[in-house]
Structures are given as structure tokens and as C-alpha cells.
Amino acid sequence: MAVTVHPVCSHLSSFHPVRTRLTTRPVSRKFGANSVRCDGSIETQRVTVKNGNDSLDICRVLNGMWQTSGGWGRIDRNDAVEAMLRYADAGLSTFDMADHYGPAEDLYGIFINRVRRERPPEFVDKVRGLTKWVPPPVKMTSNFVRESINVSRKRMDVAALDMLQFHWWDYSNTGYLDALKHLTDLKEEGKIKTVALTNFDTERLQIILENEIPVVSNQVQHSIVDMRPQQKMAELCQLTGVKLITYGTVMGGLLSEKFLDTNIAIPFSAPPLNTPSLQKYKRMVDAWGGWSLFQTLLRTLKTVATKHGVSIPTVAVKYVLDQPAVAGSMVGVRLGLSEHINDSNAVFSLVLDEDDVNSIQEVLKKGKDLLRVIGDCGDEYRRA
To answer: Measuring CA to CA, which residue among 196, 163, 155 is closest to residue 179?
Structure first.
């Protein structure tokens, strides 16, 4: 998830190393008899995240709709919906959005009604709309939570949200547990199919599970450059079965041929960093190791991509999908402005061999440990 309420990562260049232990608190090996255990059965193109009787199958490459919120070009409603239909027709039928992503939920509502009218029932059954709720820091009463979720249900024109991914700004306010319990009640009422998280760290994920809240996934920033989820989060996820859904996997487009062999320090010698996502992930590159090392990574990825007849973004997504606990990876879509359907579908047939992985890891060893620089998953949103 990319949160647009506050500026993100603008402070990375001034980060001082954080002394972070691999586990902030010991990972409990024992959960109560009623505690949460999720299981995921992964096929080539789709994955099922499951917790008890709650389950949802999604496409492993998700269409991220942060780009509809402004800053990537004007979105025409009709063109956007037509583009969503093309993605779904190509098998890329899972869309990720949020309550604050501009018109994203409204576009999904128009889209899903077109699907219901113009596609067969078995097609409708494969379409998924995942949304997020990013509430203000107020008291999480049952009525407040219910009313907030009803807004998304109405905008998306669905009786039940396929997945509600919950974000919380301030861990010192334990109201997040109240909110999640109310969301679980709404799930039991049939208004939400699955409850999930976004941008929670390992310690809070463990607390949530110990409180027997049945989350099925945690959406976090994860790319070849940002491997933080594999250092702490993945261990707990493998123990409990909670899955990771990743965003920032192609770093807003930085992980592409477009930025190969460019020098952004020289005016007009590189494509402009003219979108919120490009600016955000450029700061991540700076925190990791700088533009020169990033070019080394891009050249390595290009060699792998050429070997397999695919693109750099396809390799970047596949590398993350192959990581432990990862169920799906987000690729942002600029609906009606540009498309990458072929690159996304190429992920499913790509197999990275040992030489490919080793060559990538040799470059990654030269970068900084972002867990020490930034902190655990989601800490980039909570550091002053």
C-alpha cells in the first residue's frame, strides 16, 4: 500500500542507522488453541489466502490503483474502466485500492457492474477488489468502523468487501486492536470476506495474532532493493501462515529499461522523476546504496531478462514472488494512460535459475541493510 495522507520517505536521506534486533520481541512458537493459523495454496497464477473458514483466491500479480489518486496524469473514467476490463480479460483480475486513492473505489464499482452485465458468471467469480481503510486517530467504536466500511461497500457496489486491509498510524494508541475486532465482527456479519493488514510491523503482527484476530495477509513494501520483509516479517509469516502482499515491487518504474544506463545527476540525461512513486522510490535507492549501485543492479537484471526474453520489471516481480511468505505482488496501473499486461503475464511462465538468483544477490550484498537504516516494515510511515 502506498499511503498518500502524509509525505512518505522524504527524510530517508537524513536517516541514521537504527539498532534493530532481528526480532523486537521473541517470536512465540506456541499460540493458543483458538489462535490464528492461515494457509496458502499457491498455483502458477493464483493463490488462496486462508484462515479457518475465511478464504480468498487472488491473482499473484495485482493491479495497484494508487495511480488513480492524482500525480500520474489525468484519469478519464471511461478509459480507466475499459482498461480494467482489458486487464481482467487477460487474467489479471485482482485490483488493489484504498479509501483515499481518489476515485479508485468508485471506478471499481463501475467496472464490476460492467463485468456483471457483460461477462459470464464464472468470469465474475474470478474478479477481486481489495481495498484498504486508513482511519484517523479517533476512538474506534463499532458504529464508526461500521459506517466507514459501509462507505467503501457503497462506492465499490458490493455486498461484501473481498478483502479489507487495515492501516494504523500510531502504535502507542492500541485502538488498532479495537478496530480489528470490530472489523472481525463485520466479517462475521458477511460485510467483509477477509480481514488483512497493511504496513504493520512484525511485533504488532504478532500481537494481533495473539489477540486471535484472523488476519490473512499483511501488505508491505518489498522489492529487490527493499528486502526488509525477509529479515523479520517472513519468519513470523511462515510460522503462522499469514501471507505477504507486496507493493513497490518495481519501484514506481525505476526497475525498468527506461532508467538503465542513465545519470540523473546530469540534467535531461534521464527520464524525469515526475510521479509520486518515482520520487518516493528514488529516495529508497538513495538510502540503499545510490544511483551508481542501482545501475549495476539494473544491468544485472537486464542480463537476466535478456536471457529469458522478458523485461526488467518481469524479473523484478518474479524475484519477489519467489521469496518466502509472498502470496502476491503489486504492479501499479495507470489506467487509460499506459499498460503492461504482457509484462505482468510473463511473470507466470518465468523461472529464475540458480545462476540468475546468484547474480542478483551478488549485487544486493553491496547495498545497505535497510532494516537498520529505516526499521521494520511500515516504519517509513512512522518515523519522524
So the answer is: 196
